[in-house]
Write a structure and sequence with these properties.
Number of helices: 12
Mean pLDDT: 89
Distance between the termini: 18 Å
GO molecular function: adenosylhomocysteine nucleosidase activity; methylthioadenosine nucleosidase activity
Shape: elongated
Protein name: Nucleoside phosphorylase
Low-confidence stretches: none
Strand content: 25-35%
Number of strands: 19
Structural class: alpha/beta
CATH topology of the largest domain: Rossmann fold
GO cellular component, one term: cytosol
Keywords: Hydrolase
Helix content: 25-40%
Oligomer: single chain
Radius of gyration: 25 Å
InterPro entries: Nucleoside_phosphorylase_d, Nucleoside_phosphorylase_sf
CATH architecture of the largest domain: 3-Layer(aba) Sandwich
CATH superfamily of the largest domain: Nucleoside phosphorylase domain
Length: 380
Amino acid sequence: MKIMLIEDNKNKRDDIKSFLLSKNIVDSDIIIAKSMTDFTTNLHHDIGLFIIDLKLPNIDGGEAQFNGLTILETIKKSSKQESLLLAISSFPDEFPKLRDFYESHGCILSTYSNKKGWKSTLEHLLIQLNKNTTLDFLIFCALKEERTPYITMINGKKCNRRGIDFYDIDIGEKKGSVVLLPSMGLVNAAIIAGACIDRYKPSIVAMSGICGGFTDNVKLGQLLVSKMAYEYQSGKWTDDGFKQEPYQVSTDQNTLTNLSIMIDQDDFLKELEEGYSATKPDEPTPPIFSIFTSGSAVVASKELLTNIQNHHRKSGGLDMEIFAIHRATELSINKPLCICAKTVVDLCDSNKDDDLHIYGSYISAKFIILAIKNHYKLNT
């Protein structure tokens, strides 16, 4: 979230901005508004905190006027009514007649000459802003090696948010993070994804990484894009054995159509592999849409694999998290888009090795990055 500093006085503006920078606010996240024109022009940004001056000119270089009330009213009538508000003024004599109006709009009044006071207030608001941070997208990875490609491809910043490992990145003009799950499996994926979606309210949720594959439907080294996922271990055990009751979650059709147009481009696999120089599959295979089935255990038994595949003959990918990501997204209040893709690195038998792990992690991460870019390009 960005901060809008609405102030025409250079010395005062520089003083407040310097304090923000000292609190690790990135310069690019501070929007300066020296006039009402600047204020209205930049109001479309995702602004979490407004720092307001009582007096502001209508145009650059104009005479300052008492526009503070207009600014507050505009904010409250826009989509920014949940933003934090702080007015720092050099005219405290005006406070008595303005206080009721400002405070009724949730705006704190501070006197500029009392630097200790406004800095303390602003610091508390920055802490609250950090708690209220929203992200445009969230990408989940179950393994460090699955997240590593994002770190090598995009400059970002690691941070710990409430014990969860985030790697914050920008894709185009959108801000998001690649979240490393504390452990593999459906339970970890569901809990962490659900909590993060609820807290950061992304418009896109994604997952990339590596998976097993069903020999009849996929090739080794092939990227699978999830069109539907289900959990193979849900059901009921009886004296006659296990009776499965799979719950299915599908990727919405509009998203699938947009992704289909993207992956049907000529040489799309070459685009995914660009920049990668390590071990590759013996046979290059284009990405496909596939059905994923998820469970909590690693499967290395051909007999069990056959039993799982019998539940849906077109299943292509077998993993431990994708169903949970789909389900967490489906149950969220915000209903973000969900895009999941993993690369087949083994055929779920006893012949498991790590030869294609780096390749699989790389091209699935590259796909998610391109998919997110493509989505926001189509929706701007």
